Amino acid sequence: MPTAVLLDSSLSMTRPVSVEGSEEFQRKNLAVHGLTMLFEHMATNYRLEFTSLVSFSSLWEVLVPFTRDYNTLQEALNNLEDYDKTCLEAALQGVSNIVQQEWGTSCPCQVVLVTDGALGIGRGSLRHSLQTVKQRVEDKKFPLPFPFPSKLYVMCIANAEELQATDSMDNLEQLINLNGGEGQIYTMEGPLCLKSVQSMFGKLIDQAYSPFHAVLRCGNLTSDVQVFPRPEPVTIDEEVDPMPRTVQTEGDEIGTGATDDTEEETSTNQMAGKSPNFCVLLHGSLKVEGMVALVQLGPDWFGMLYSQADSKKKSNLMMSLFEPGSEPLPWLGRISQLGPASDAAENPYGEDDSKSPFPIQPKHKRSYAQNVTVWIKASGLQTDVQKILRNARKLPEKTQTFYKELNRLRKAALAFGFWELLKSMAELLERECTLLSDSAHPDAAFQLSHAAQQLKLASSGDSKYAAYEHNITPMLTDFSGGGGAHRI
Amino acid sequence: MFSVSHKTAFVVDHCPYMAESCRQLIECDMLTKSRSQGVIPLAPVSKSLWTCAIECSMEYCRILFDVYPTWKLVNYIVSDSEVHILNSWKQEDQNTHELMAALAAVGPPNPRQDPECCSVLHGLVAAVESLCKITEYQHESRTTLMDTADRVANRGRIICLTNAKSDTHVRMLEDCVLETIQEQNKRAAGSDRLMPIQQCELVLVHIYPQGEETLVSDRQKKELSSMLSSEVHSVRAGRYLASKLNVLVQQHFDLASTTITNIPMKPTLNVFEQEEQHANTSANYDVELLHHRDAHMEFIKSGDLHMAGSTSRDSGLKETVTLKWCTPRTNSVELHYCTGAYRISPVDVNSRPSSCLTNFLLNGRSVLLEQPRKSGSKVISHMLSSHGGEIFLHVLNSTRSTLEDPPSISEGCGGRVTDYRITDFGEFMRENRLTPFPDSMIDAAGRTPVERAKSQLERYTRYWPMIISQTTIFNMQAVVPLANLIVKDTLTDEDVLTCQKTVYNLVDMERKSDPLPISTVGSRGKGPKRDEQYRIMWNELETLVKAHVGTSERHQRVLECISACRSKPPEEEERKKRGRKREDKEDKTEKNGKDTEEKGWTTDSERLKGVMEREKDEQSECEIIKDSPDSPEPLNKKPRLATEEQQPPEKSKGPVSLLTLWTNRITQANSRKHQEFAGRLSSVNNKAELYQHLKEENGMDVHENGKATR
């Protein structure tokens, strides 16, 4: 999950902190100290995550675009400049824009706002922004809630008492509420000093930047893994039992299947070393065989493991999380019903691996796969009628198609209670009969008048002839090779 | 989960007035020019109000069943002088084919029926009763939740297609529904198979023929009570009704519309004959699809909806996002960063462009869809592709991915190890592939198929060395039959026989002194001697079989066979002496269980360490015997220094081990046979300083690597 750090560079950040003895610190120095600690932590434990540094006053500026290079971020911290007053709204809008530009609106992002809690005065101050939040026109909306899933962490280089003395704390709390409650305010405990800023950032790290360690297990083969980005708990919008689901740290690999779709990706990465590791073995075999492994993350929560290669020959083991549920991918069916292929009476993959039991076909075909009849537009009806007539003119060669189309029309007309159409169709067929040329095959005339008569009978609604499942069958004539069949 | 859209009751009026014509004429006699001479065209046909109502409601159901094959249920009711309930809430009844057959049996309304005894009211009452009936899904939730069963909600929607007389008539219908709900809720409270209705949405659609003034006015959704809301739509029959129901199905089920534009229809893609086509066959076509609106989430959130080519049509109610077809370049299967997949339903299901597109997709091809942007770059935002006969609209991540440039797995733990049993594990995975089983398939122990799969994995991995140099038996073709069988849950007598044959075959190989594929990694020289190789092989085989010995009595028999047959070479007296003690310990460690064993074959480096600390203690002893292919001969001689160095801590630990006693004795015995090195005699802590004389001669430090020795 990427992080955007929004650092207050207004003049008030240069206020000195009263420290007994030793050297004098500015609040800015404390902020830099805290962020340095955060960046160091990420460089060691979160080196695959992207972080951006934005500084703001009345204007805002991207100091470092999203990067994994923590040295650059650190360097930027060391070269900060001081500007004028605090205008938080514009800065939040700025962060919202850069995150959307970079990652779109579906990628979750953490925003870390570092400020001294002096939130500006007059126009552009947070107080002013919040007072006018309800009177905005469409294109000047307050940037919160962010359009992407987010957590807003406010790191105050101030202690709670100081913030509560003014309305700063209230305003910040309102900010979190505007973000749908997603986020948290951290304040410093005790005197403002290096130690208390460390402890504050320490709390943030524990809350939001703890690495995700897990054990990948396949029977008795196991491997310790770290997962990037950290899988976050999911709350399903289920009215019966709304409960957050967390990924269990024990990943159970439950077997392999072949599928090709993903919901959400995270990459699994291992710690360094030189002894054999199950992850490497699994990855190698998945890659060579072109298979994926199904992995269980919790009760009724599954995912899959596969080899993911980027363009540069590098590949790694990737884990995709499915949406929680017992049947995350319809074409796999219920996961609990997947068992060892060796238990099946016959190898479902075929002796030579030529078959697969997947995808599972749905019980009923979808409308687009079953030649349904829809006459909502006149053209639909006209097409069907013309199709029958076209085949009627090519009798007896097209006898089969003629009756197939005729029965399709008959069924739909009966279901829709459209008996008038049956009568018209019968008339059209009778007219075709009279228009037959002298050279026409004699069978054509018999089939046409037979079909017309059957349609007329159906249009009477007589249950004997109007049964839905009944089909009009070709008349057996001497010409159609039916040998000894009756004639009209 | 059980929102209003879980249950939809359709009530269609089947009274005599519904037989009236909608007065929209359809010309079905389209004479081609060449044949038109002297033929009087047939009178155009027109649908009845009933036909219009049926086909539009069927279209509603078709879209619904395409997008939600489960969980969203329809109960179809027809009302005249009595009630015809055409299906139930059961999942198997949820398809248009069944409904069409049932509708055919009902037939069109009889215009000669006495209008006085006919009413849509019967149907509305039946619909309320039906909404009280519990569905399979509600039942399942109630039974699984037990204590919180009362939290399973019962909500539903009634869509009534009728021809009302006036606004007052509409009021009357609404009142009737409200009364019935109150009545039925009382009844339902005392029943197991019924549930009271918590919320009901009544959607009244008044249908009137073209060219007539409507007698009923439209009305927005209004709460009639805490349980019932109602809305009225007054619509002309025919295509107006069709587009109204299309809008309703989108509203009711959170659907959105995407129009695929620029679909090239080459003659090769045609499914129908050319006749009805226009002259230009390579024209580009549009196809409109419906799907869950979440597929547009990215557009909605970013406010891009209009930029993405969204257009409003048909009175502004209906919006569609236009995406451009990208002709697939290759047929190769690529994995895309996909963030969601949603079922689709084409709006014009049997139009030629639609069926061309859907057939193309059902045949296994995929189509990438491009977001038309006003400025510059093209962005691929979606993909259409089918799985198991169902077409899905996949949402692709069109922005930068946080997963870009991942590190290679070779940079991580175990990444430098080169002799993984990749092929063997591939075979292992193929043997453990999953397959779907019918719902009722639970085995004698009550395990679900997936539990059986997990237990199979456990069995198959009890002894599974990960790298080639850790194993001998899995590198031997001769062991394969036994190795494949021993992991099984049950063995037949025949299986046992096969295992025994495998063992006899190995005995035979040993007798003939056939070479074994023992790895020489980590050992110097030409590796262990032949008999040592076989000892290692037999030990490993025993380890494998012992891991399964508890499975059944037949598994036990295989182990017995090995114990009886395996070689204890009598010709090597010295080895025998050493070996006996070693084997004693070995048995002990093996009884200690798998833990020790696992440690035994964990890592390369540990193994090397084990070699160095060879006779240190039981465990390292076990390591070497278990899996080290290293020859003991040179090692016995070489690391004596190290051995003795290790002894003091051993002693300090407590009672002296048998091993220590033995080595001490041997050392003593040996020391008598030769003169001890001068260095060792004068050593401090087993370390002797070399070149002491130089120091004495020069009288200065020699640390500087010879520089000082001028």
TrEMBL record, chain A:
UniProt region (Disordered), positions on chain: 247-271, 340-365
Domain Integrator complex subunit 14 C-terminal: 373-480
InterPro entries: INTS14, IntS14_b-barrel, IntS14_C, VWF_A, vWFA_dom_sf
Domain VWFA: 3-117
Location(s), subcellular: Nucleus
GO molecular function, one term: metal ion binding
Cited SUPFAM superfamilies: vWA-like
Residues annotated as domain Integrator complex subunit 14 beta-barrel: 243-325
One family name in Pfam for this protein: IntS14_b-barrel
GO cellular component entries: integrator complex
Biological process terms in GO annotation: snRNA 3'-end processing
Keyword Cell membrane: no
Keywords for this protein: Magnesium, Metal-binding, Nucleus
Principal location: nucleus
Keyword Mitochondrion set for record: no
SUBUNIT field: Component of the Integrator complex, composed of core subunits INTS1, INTS2, INTS3, INTS4, INTS5, INTS6, INTS7, INTS8, INTS9/RC74, INTS10, INTS11/CPSF3L, INTS12, INTS13, INTS14 and INTS15. The core complex associates with protein phosphatase 2A subunits PPP2CA and PPP2R1A, to form the Integrator-PP2A (INTAC) complex. INTS14 is part of the tail subcomplex, composed of INTS10, INTS13, INTS14 and INTS15.
Family (UniProt): Belongs to the Integrator subunit 14 family.
Name the record gives this protein: Integrator complex subunit 14
From TrEMBL, chain B:
Any one Gene Ontology cellular component term annotated for this protein: cytoplasm
Superkingdom in the source lineage: Eukaryota
Family, as annotated: Belongs to the Integrator subunit 13 family.
Species in which this protein is naturally found: Cyprinus carpio carpio
Biological process per Gene Ontology, one example term: centrosome localization
Subcellular location: Cytoplasm; Nucleus
Record region (Disordered): 568-657
Biased composition (Basic and acidic residues): 568-629
Keywords: Cell cycle, Cell division, Cytoplasm, Mitosis, Nucleus
Name used for this protein in its record: Integrator complex subunit 13
